[in-house]
């Protein structure tokens, strides 16, 4: 592990940071005002610090990490391409093609790898692309992942301060400075890229609504969604279902308000949907049983006999729809509001526990103070409604399938900024009477 980091790497990180910051400021974020420039500088420095902290933990504390396997696999792929440039095709072919070749080459097989599945191999592809410009340095490749997410998050920040001007001073906290985002969406993680592609998708939708070239931007949206699907398919489905549900519910609401015929149509439509679902519940059995099996299997792996001090118990889920339904509220709560402060068994979990506790307190304060504005906040902006459903769906999936605080904190990171954003929107929403007077 010590071989992953050398004295020259620190110097390279310093040089790369200065050069990349200048380039970003000159070409990507060239029209920032002084305030935004300061925010970007602070955010950029914290991103670099997060990457360095992660690598130091891998080398001197954890001694093992998934990112090391991905890095090793990128070495394998670089060696293949170096020996024969036509092997660059494996960057674009499915992982099975790469595996069939790598298993025949014992000199490459001797380098530990971890790209047996497509989602891991996607990370290997990205690492391989950055390998030459990073001089084969593990720290610098992590740096490039941090830069991708820094660009994506700051672009989203610049969009959201326009969409939500009433809380623009709070948006930097939600999107940029939450510890979970800084640490878990900076290094070589799937979550780093998933959040980045999610941010780019939202920015592109905003640009389509407010500027030209919709076809090109729509194609870029499809590319981003495809990448999310390859990395974490459940995030893709959660986003897709959230968008479909919100758009359909808004359409039906408008139709319901418009006329008597619209009301009749909506009642008929909802009745038919419920009837079809009730008559075809077995269609969802395979998905439901798969989710329950994953949950119960993970609980056995991270059960009381486990040596992992970050593991926690959730309780076995009964193999039925009602059994799954009964666990959803606790799974959702566990995802976003645990670990508790007294459940900390590792120093690295401390910041996550404090953050979860603050998130719970802020949400509780928002509900107590402005709970009556809940539906108003959702209806004010389609993006808000989609974000809320997305946070719920992702929280449920992660909460009932993950039983290790270390992975739980990382898995939920793509949804964390949107949860905080909704909390601030609710907390700083105006009372209905005051809103009407304004």
Task: Describe the secondary structure blueprint for this structure.
Blueprint: H1 7-28, H2 34-62, H3 66-83, H4 95-102, H5 106-109, H6 118-130, H7 138-163, H8 168-177, H9 179-184, H10 190-210, H11 214-231, H12 233-258, H13 260-279, H14 285-301, H15 321-337, H16 350-370, H17 374-380, H18 382-399, H19 405-411, H20 416-427, H21 432-437
Helix pairs in contact: 1-2, 1-7, 2-7, 3-6, 7-8, 7-10, 8-20, 10-11, 11-12, 12-13, 12-18, 15-18, 16-20, 17-18, 18-20
Short description:
This protein is mainly alpha-helical and 438 residues long. 74% of the residues lie in helices and 0% in strands. The relative contact order is 0.08.
How does this structure look, described?
With 438 residues, the protein is mainly alpha-helical. Helix content is 74%, strand content 0%. The chain is built from 21 helices and no strands. It has helices at 7-28, 34-62, 66-83, 95-102, 106-109, 118-130, 138-163, 168-177, 179-184, 190-210, 214-231, 233-258, 260-279, 285-301, 321-337, 350-370, 374-380, 382-399, 405-411, 416-427, 432-437. Helix 1 packs antiparallel against helix 2 (34-62), helix 12 (233-258) runs antiparallel to helix 13 and helix 16 packs parallel to helix 20 (416-427). It is globular and about 70 Å long. The relative contact order is 0.08. Residues 110-114 have low confidence and may be disordered.
